[in-house]
Amino acid sequence: MTGSDTPDPRGALAGLRPRLPSVLQEVVDERFERRGIRLLLKRDDLIHPELVGNKWRKLAPNLAGAAGRTVLTFGGAYSNHLRATAAGGRLLGLRTVGVVRGQELAGRPLNPSLARCAADGMRLCFVDRSTYRRKNEPETLAAVLRAADAEDAYVVPEGGSNAAAVRGCRALGEELAGRADVVTVPCGTGGTLAGLAAGLGDGTRALGVPVLKGGFLGAEIRALQTAAFGGPRGDWSLDDRFHFGGYARTTPELDAFAEDFERRHGVPVERLYVAKSLYALVALAEENAFPRGSTLAAVITGRPFP
To answer: How far apart are CA 244 and CA 222, in angstroms?
Structure first.
């Protein structure tokens, strides 16, 4: 079970045949090897072709919990979470509604990400940015649900991070327990790190690399762990230096790094999350942040789109 009050997704979603536990792949990279460090890649990008990476771990318990109801969730115009929810809805025969940040987008042609959501059957509802910022307030959420004609929907928060998702991500930590000294993961809303840290157990530290600016994520992770487990769990920390300008932003330097990593190891590198986390690991190794003899594991949470 993923938690005493969370439906077990293994039964409800068994027909989707996820590849679990995900592959743990060792790669030889001289930037780590010359410092006496082993590098492992936790290939969550291979779990499922459409519910990719941490989206499977976070969404599976929520899709199971919906129990056939419409699933309504939130995201920006390029949200991986919206695409994964739409794909999950199509695969399971669930109706899905995506509340998209930016009323100004309603009259424009859909970008490839939102077009994929629509093709998978998701009904898109665009809201102004002020309303979107207040979406977690009960009155605003109720108004959004009414406007979307989805008052009875099962609501999944932006990024999929809630108590059910955090308990689902605990399995990621359990799969890595005892396999590495430090496990890194890119962070958007913090749910994956919250669950990962809880599952790792003693002796392994989880390091989150936020892809957004602002420094607010630590409080969010603590709140998620409290909601999921009743209090803090595991040894985790954040390094806020590698957001490269913020969410959905990249730079020529980051693109060049990702292309080089792909050439070295034959692993597709998603730019908005995974590339930032891998870049952080290389930079930290150059800063001698890890003792010789350390084993590092990098969670590959997704792959490039399309």
So the answer is: 24
CB 171 within 8 A of CB 209: no
CA 269 to chain centroid = 15
Q: Tokens 């970008």 map to which residue?
A: 111
The strand ranges marked E within 20-174 are 23-27, 38-43, 71-75, 96-101, 123-127, 154-156
With a cut of 70, list the residues of the chain below it in pLDDT.
Answer: 1-12, 14
CB-count burial class (<10 Å; 0-12, 13-18, 19+) for 27: middle
- Do 173 and 12 touch, CB atoms closer than 8 A? no
CA angle (161, 248, 38) in 5-degree steps: 75
Predicted local distance difference test score (pLDDT) of residue 13:
72
For tokens 């079970």, the residue is: 1
CA torsion sign, 224 to 168 to 272 to 205? positive
Q: Exposure string (b/e) for 176-215, b if CB count within 10 Å is 16 or more?
A: beeebbbbbbbbbbbbbbbbbbbbbeeebebbbbbbbeee
- Residue appearing with tokens 């979603």: 13
